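Methods — Computational structure assignment.
A single polypeptide chain was analysed. Its primary sequence is given first, followed by the predicted tertiary structure written as structure tokens.
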Amino acid sequence: MLPQRPLLSLLLLAISVTPIVADTLQSGRSIEGRLSTIATRTATEVKLDGVLDDEVWKVAKPVSGFVQSEPQESAPASEDTEVRIAFDADSLYIAAYCHDREPKKLIVSALRKDFKEDEQDTFGLALDTFKDRRNGYIFYTNPEGAKADQQFANEGREINASWDAVWWVATRKVENGWIAEIRIPFKALRFEPSDQATWGVNFARRIRRKNEVSYWSLIPRAYTFARMSLGGDLTGLDAGTPGRDLRVKPYVAGSTVRPTGGVFDQSGDIGVDFKGALTPSLTLDATINPDFAQAEADEQQVNLTQFSQFFPEKRDFFLENSGVFYVGDAARNTGVVLAPTPDEDLLPFFSRRIGLSSQGTPIPITAGGRLTGRLGGFSVGGLFAHTKEVSAEPSNLWGVLRIRRNILKNSDFGAIFMTRQATGRDDSYNRVYGLDATIRLPGNLDWSAYALKSESPGRHGGQSAVRTSLNREGNFVHVKAGFMQIDPQFNDELGYLRRTGIRKTFTDFGLRPRPQALRRFGVRELHPHIVWNYFNDLHGKFLAKRLHNGFTVFLSNGGFFEYSANPQADTLVRPFKIHRDSAPIPKGFYDWHVHQFKLNSDPSRKLSVNLDLGKGGLWNGRQTIISPQVRIRPNYRFSISAGLSRTKVDLDSLNAHFVQSLLTVRSNYSFSRNMFLDALIQYDYDQKVRNTNIRFNFIHRPLSDLYIVYNEQAFATPEAPVPGRSLVVKFTRMVSF
């Protein structure tokens, strides 16, 4: 038995050390060396009002010490940010005190939901609820309390900006900065239940007037906020179970439609969407008779190529969790360099093939479903839809199944199966299946590859497609090189591809020096770069090239300008009609060169300007491109932009001379954080047609909307028919259980 005095000494020592240990854990480092903080439990209600006077905020110790990613990586942030974290049985709470010595210079550019975070002052939170260092959620707010939320996978290779959660935020401007209080219900997230759980976490702050980005756990400027392998730890959570989060969202819609030259036809429609968690990490979505009348109209483009135009998906049902079905490497993962789009020579899965014709006209969908989440160590995704029979299309059943398994450190392999099966007047089908992998190698190297095979009746011989690439992303140098082959008989009716029977080699290389001497001239970064694509047929014969040799100057205020030389060549296997008033361009090989200049001013200003100039060859002639755009944003409620895309074409050998011009006017007004009015007006000078799309959206309760959509198409010709018009009113109401 020990003497009582030593026992008393040990007890006093333990009591004295406990606060030190608690304080270290509150904002210290984990065993892995990561930044770590503890969430504080609260037994009392937290009032979201932007005032940090709740009892829990007096107890919870803040984390701070943010460091810059931009403009001076690893330097302390120019303004302090303090973040406190708390939780109760139902929700996670975050309080952010964003200090600012010049609060009158805060920049707020938008009040609407899912605003552009890079154009204003923001605070951001990233949560990796499964602590797999790959996947999670991002929440942003600005000093006016606007909300933006995203779901990301594989550290940003897939970003789903259309993901929506029920969460709340209150902000307040104070004399030395601004404060944000955020509440996120646990049932809005997916996670594995655990007492004293540990999640991945990171915080971001943007000070827009300085174009400064800082993080709690540093992320190099070559990467985005979704780089969770560089995040910290949030410990001490007792989130219970996420619950089923069952949502039922019925809608009722009425419309009156008059086709161009026709008469008005009134109709009504009803439908319903379901969402529910089958397990804590697996979510089922289903829809009956979905309606997409509220989707924004496609923005028209001048197309002088032999290929069909690419239009992005804008329908909510197909956008949500769309990253699960993505195959291939993503666009460059950086917030500094302008990222190219994914490889449009072949997108294995392109959801616009479902429920839309090749001309973009809707094909009714009777029902659809989507299953996404984690199951038995795999990330899984399933999608199905049934479309009705229309005059040119049979009824079809569409399906996609995607599985992926994480391996090693931030690597994965997966498989995909896609099918279209006619269920109406014929028995045609198309099936595509394959494997893919992304392996992270030492030295910031990523290797990505996929192999696909298609099956369609009446097609024989090669029906495969393969692609592989090696990518390195760094602060000073980025480089990508790869190879793609598409067999002549490959047929992917759920994908987007431009041509078959090709071998494509590609490279993307650039440097990012930041000379100190240029800072006083407002220059942040120089970016000499090349993006080269070469195409041969399967016998090695040269077919085409798309080369881009550019030099970009990024300015400290967020603007940039660029000069590029763009040699191009292409082979026409059949005559190609470039314009309705010109003779077809004969088949054969064509080689030309285009010089281009681009200028973008600071997008956070009340007045910003974009300019795109181009001059050079085009097929067997010449082209001159002038595309100016002006945006005026007097305040965070209203913005209006007008842009002209004008291309003058001279094809002397065909005696064809024409101008294609598109005028696009876009305006947005936010009555509040829950009520918006958007207008898109496009005028095609060549065809003398005006398209108008006006959308009113009132979020009358979380995830519940009232839409009023007006569309008009009118021709400005002497023999013009009566304009086509439609008015759609749609009301949705989400009920949560």
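Note: The longest strand covers residues 656-672.
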